[in-house]
Amino acid sequence: MEQILKKIYKSRIFGLISILFFIAVCMGIGAFAAYVKHVSNPTEQAVTYFRAFMQQDYDTMYNLLDKKDGYYISKDRYKEIMQKTKESMTIDSYKINDPRKEDGQYVVTIECTDDDTDSSQNMNIYLNKKMHLPKLKPDYKVDIEKMLVKNLTIKIPQGDKLTIAGIEITDKDANITTENNIQIYNFKAILNGNYKITCENEYCAKNTLANVIKKDMEVDLTKSWYTANDRYTSKITNSVTDFMNKYYSAARNRSKSDKKLMAFIDDKKLQKSVSKTVEETMSGLYWSDKKNIDKYKVSDFKIKDLNSTIKYHSKSKDFQVTSTYNYDYTCTTDIATYTSYVYKYSGSCKATLKITYSIDNGNLKIKNVKLSEKQKRK
Questions:
Q1: Does domain 230-377 have CATH number 3.10.450?
Q2: CA distances from 151 to 165, 183, 230, 297 (A)
Q3: Given 26, 78, 180, 357, which residue has the most CB atoms within 10 angstroms?
Q4: pLDDT by residue (tens digit) across 177-201?
Q5: Cα(343)–Cα(314) distance, integer angstroms
Q6: CATH: 1.10.472.80, 3.10.450.50, 3.40.50.300, 2.60.40.10. Which one for 43-143?
Q7: Cα–Cα distance, 375 to 194 (Å, whole number)
Q8: Alpha helices in 174-222 (DSSP H)
Q9: CA distance 37 to 306
Q10: Quick check: helix, strand or coil at residue 157?
Q11: Pfam families recorded for this chain (predicted)?
Q12: CATH number given to 148-224
C-alpha cells in the first residue's frame, strides 16, 4: 500500500490535481476579496440617506445616524435641522460621486444642481464602518460630528429630574454624578441649537433657554429660582384667571361679598380682606363725585396686557403669582325717558395682583391676596 501511494505522489496526475487545487484556492480567495470589496462599498448607505432627504423622510435619516454612547441626538432637533436644510436647497438634478477616504472615514459627495440658477451645492455624507462579527458584511452609519457640540455639563438640584425639550434625560443619554446635593449631567456630545432645559419635581420646576453652540459649555440650574412645573402652571393660571373674572364681576355688580368669589377663600379673615379690596375697586369704577352714581352700571370692561410670573418659595412651600395688567371700562345709565339720552363716562386702570397659593393634598389653596390699582379718568 505504501508503495502504491509513493507511485501516485510521483505521478503527473498528482501534480495536475495539486495545480488545480491551487487555482481553485486562488479563485476562491479572489472571489471572497471581490465580495468583501463589494459589500464594503458605503455608497449604497449614502444613497439611502440622500433619497430619504429628498423625500423628507427624516425618520429614516435619523435611524441611519451613528449614535455613539454618551451622545445625545434629539430626534426632534435633528428633524428640525434637516427640514430647514431641505427648504433652503433647490435640487433639480444630482450626481453621486465615488466614495473616498478622509481621516479614516468614508465620504460620499453628492453634487446637487439648481437648474434655474445653474448653481450647485455639495452634500458631503460621512460614514463610519461598523463590523459585527461573525457577519462578514459591515454596516455603515452616517456620522454627523460636524453638527455636534462636545462636552455639555448641566447641573440641577439633587432629586429633580432633567428634561431637554420635553424629553426626560436618563443615564442612557448622559453620565450622571452627584456632588454636594447637586446632580451633574455630562454629555459627550449634543446637537447644536436652542433648547428648553428644565429640572422639575412634583410641584415646581426651573427653566432656561440655552443656545448650545460652544464646546465645554455649562448650564447651572441650581442658581435660578423655582416656578411651578407644567402641571401646576396650568392649574395656577386657570385659578388666577377664574379669580380675576369673579373678582371684577363682583366689583362691577357692587357685590363686595359675592358668594362665588368668597368660595375661593377658606380663611374668614382673608375673606374680609378681599371684601374690603372689592370695595376699593368699586370706588374706582363708580366715581363718588358723579351725580346719580347709583344709576350707573359698568357696560364695558376689558382686561388687556396680562402678564403673570410664578415663583415657588421652598422654605414656605408656596407659590406667589404676580400678575400685571391694564383694564378699560365704561359706565352708563339706562336711557332717560324724558331725554332719550344715555349718560356715560370712561376710565382705565393699571393693576398688579399678587396671589399666594399653598398646596393641600395636591390642591391649590389661596393664602393671601394683594391688589394694587392706579385709576385714570378719561
A1: yes
A2: 18, 16, 29, 64
A3: 357
A4: 999 999 999 999 999 999 999 999 9
A5: 52
A6: 3.10.450.50
A7: 42
A8: none
A9: 67
A10: strand
A11: MecA_N (PF05223)
A12: 2.60.40
Cβ contacts of residue 140 below 8 Å, gap of 6+? Answer: 42, 45, 46, 106, 127, 128, 129, 130
Specify the DSSP class assigned to residue 137. S
Tell me the residue ranges of DSSP E strands in the chain: 71-72, 93-96, 100-102, 105-114, 119-130, 139-143, 148-157, 161-164, 167-168, 175-179, 182-191, 193-200, 204-212, 218-220, 227-228, 297-313, 318-332, 344-360, 363-377
Parallel, antiparallel, or unpaired: how do β-strands 148-157 and 218-220 relate? parallel
- Report the distance separating Cα 42 and Cα 142, nearest Å: 10
How far is Cα 192 from Cα 149, in angstroms, rounded to an integer? Answer: 6
Instruction: Kindly list the distances between the CA atom of residue 113 and the CA atoms of 81, 96, 123, 131, in Å, as whole numbers in the listed order.
Output: 21, 12, 11, 35
Number of Cα atoms under 13 Å in the Cβ half of residue 312: 21
Q: 43-143 and 230-377: same fold?
A: yes
User: Rounded CA gap, 321 and 238, in Å?
Assistant: 12
User: Residue 28 has which C-alpha cell?
Assistant: 476562491
- Distance between CA 306 and CA 349 in Å, rounded? 13
What angle, 0 to 180 degrees and rounded to 10, lies between the N-to-C axes of helices 12-39 and 2-10? 70
80/341: higher pLDDT: 80
Amino acid, res. 171: D
Q: Cell 435640487, residue?
A: 91
Is the pTM here over 0.85, yes or no?
A: no
Pairing between β-strand 182-191 and β-strand 71-72 as defined by DSSP bridges: parallel
Q: What share of the chain is helix, strand, coil (3-state, %, to 5)?
A: 30, 40, 30
Residues 6 or more apart whose CB falls under 8 angstroms from that of 212 comprise: 149, 152, 190, 191, 192, 193, 194, 195
d(CA 22, CA 205): 74
Sequence-distant (≥ 6) Cβ neighbours of residue 323 within 8 angstroms: 240, 244, 306, 307, 308, 352, 353, 354, 355
